[in-house]
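ok posting inputs for the 1,5-anhydro-6-O-phosphono-D-glucitol job
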Amino acid sequence: MDVSIRFRREMDKGLCRDTNPTAAVRMLPTFVLSTPDGTEQGEFLALDLGGANFRVLLVKVMADGEQKVEMENQIYDIPEHLMRGSGTELFDHIADCLANFLEKLGIKDKKLPLGFTFSFPCQQTKLDESVLLSWTKAFKSSGVEGKDVVSLLRKSIKKRGVRTGTNACYMEQMRNIELLDADEGRMCVNTEWGAFGDDGTLEDLRTDIDREIDAGSLNPGKQLFEKMISGMYMGELVRLILVRMTREQLLFQAKTTAELLTTGSFKTSYIYGIDNENNEEGLASAEKVLRGLNLDPSVEDCIATQRVCQIVSTRAAHLCAATLVAVLRQIRDNKAAEKLRTTIGVDGSVYKNHPEFSRRLHKMVRRLVPDCDVRFLQSQCGSGKGAAMVTAVAYRLAAQNAERQRILDTMCLSREQLLEVKRRMSEEMVRGLSKQTHEQASVKMLPAYVRSTPDGTEHGDFLALDLGGSSFRVLLVQVQSGQRHKAKMQQKIYSIPQETMQGTGEELFDHIVDCIAAFLEYMGMKGASLPLGFTFSFPCHQSRLDQGILLKWTKGFKASGCEGHDVILLLKDAVRRRQEFDLNFVAVVNDTVGTMMTCGYEDPKCEVGLIVGTGTNACYMEEMSNIELVEGNEGRMSINMEWGAFGDNGELDDFCTRFDHIVDDSSNNPGKQRYEKMISGMYLGEIVRNVLIDFTSKGLLFRGKLSERLKTWGIFATKFLSQIESDRLAMRQIRSILQHLGLTSSTIDDSVLVKEVCSVVARRAAQLCGAGLAAVVDRMRENRNLNQFSVTVGVDGTLYKTHPHFSSIMQETLQDLAPQCQVTFQKSEDGSGKGAALITAVACRIKSEGQH
Ligand code: 0WK
Ligand code: BGC
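and the output
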């Protein structure tokens, strides 16, 4: 347990950017980001260097979902002199072996992808670039350390014209690998645990025998943990112990032999025969080995030798278990899992050939982490197949990334495209304002009859309704003159059931009046007759403040018998039907105008209102001289742009993707509100859902498994976009959102991709919104013949307020496309209902001034 805890500390040092350079356990990123998902296919070559044997392999991977792999391999010798010679000779030899292999298989002309298992500590900067940090085991070729082994191999192959240690790797969360900037997904980390203890962490456990081995090794002071547990040194450990015991007259009548004193004379493979459950066989094997070393062992000597072998290999198995457990704990903590269920792929001659090693390792692992369900899977085909699989996965990932990027690129807008959106919006604004082209214009530029802002003399109680956003509110706003910032407000939120939104107009307005009655009751003002301001967030033609002819429903509303009607009259009729109270209908305003007024009450420079919520829209103060639909040229009046309809005449067709068309076709107003359907909260989730369906159907996501729930309209609520993109949300939380959507088998990689889709869709929405706003503020600047123009925009809407990046991306785009405008954004805290009440207060003041 203590060794395991020490190793865990070393792992953290290796993962941490500051301590990595001096960490003994280097925790090297491998740039292997994913494990096979069964869709890999193709033929791959693999080289496997560094274990007991050097292999060249041809691996055929079939994407038949059965993980079937066909393999041909050839073992080639790496002569000792090449291990210690020059690196060029070593890599030329490797290239020769490869050429020989290709020749044999008659595939010399095939240009196959190659995976290279190079089992030495390497600093990788990408999957196919790997700099050797230091040789280990029996290798010491010159001119290789500090070099990229892939380019050395490439050079030899171009020229050509074609082991025994211990280590572990595991899939680590990217956010824990401080050497890399990425935060999302996982990457395989090569722990290089052979070097555990090189910084003295194991000094209290290392014995004099360990120090003797190290002193006699090719790399003293290095790979100390490896020298305590791996096959290259296990035999030598036993030999040195036998020598020590002999010299202390404990064995072989204190007589050593030249063989016993020869380094490496006691092979690790000897231990496999001696440290045998079947004692008899083990002792016989011990005697045979000792006689082979020219010793004349007694039975006691054989028993003692067997005991030494048991102790050396048991220590190795237990130490290996301790470090393995540290890795298992790291994975469990990363997953925040109660119980970890995982499989460990194992290879190596000691694990495979030592009769007791694996049992002892498994047993100690289970003792140290009884709460983990660990399966050990012995690799049958060596890591060469693994290298081929890594190559196959890399190929699959590369192909999938390319396809995903190709699709996502259709949703990325360039600066030129955004400038074009701005230009076309400006053009449509002019067409909307002009009497001649107003009817055809997609952006209706509706006069809103708000021309002045409160002057502080307003006072009284006002009722306000706020319909059209994600919730319906009834408000009482009490305005005291001279108390500019102290308008008191009480409000209650009421729901508008879907069937009421899409029923008859009478039912809808009767429901609204029911809510007013309930509110007056709740406020103890039953029967009160107050001036009313009505925020009605839909396109209305107005010829005065207290009239609003509904042009068309948008968002989720479709109540019959309303379009083409004055909504004030519809409300009046409903009040009349109820016969319980009366109201003084003073104003109907759009939520953008209400929001502008609410913020304008605090900041007189607020002359633009913006909503990015269920729907999207903007209003601003336009020169009366430009509003051809209204008489008079003096001063300014607010214009409800209804920019949600921008694109309904095809202005955005060259920016629309097939996902936008799918969302529009499945909406309740196809062909309408095209700009809104690329920006607002009611639709962003749907765009994402359709991209995810497309990716899944192409096998680029969720392993191609499409869940029924994901096929459900509206299931991917836009709030998920905001949650998924929040920096605080860990990948596993994204996974729980996906599980909620019935995507129970999603992987971390899937979560990373879903997050990327959400960010691409939200980024485009924010940029399009920024381009539209740039057209508005630049027009106001030109209207006022200003070189520099500063203005405040009052903004409201759930998407703008809750999405972690929408507002900043929109403001960046606005600043870039309208650099001569300094725009301040003021979030409306009180909603547009207050604005409607203030507009009502102003209208009442003007009316009462007019009567005196
Ligand atoms: C709050 C305003 C309301 C507006 C809404 C828009 O008071 O008038 O319609 O914001 O945001 P949503 O609720 O659609 O997200
Ligand atoms: C409506 C606008 C409203 C906007 C924001 C749009 O669908 O047409 O009138 O301002 O949503 O709520």
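notes: Residues 24 and 200 are 9 Å apart (CA to CA). The mean pLDDT is 90.
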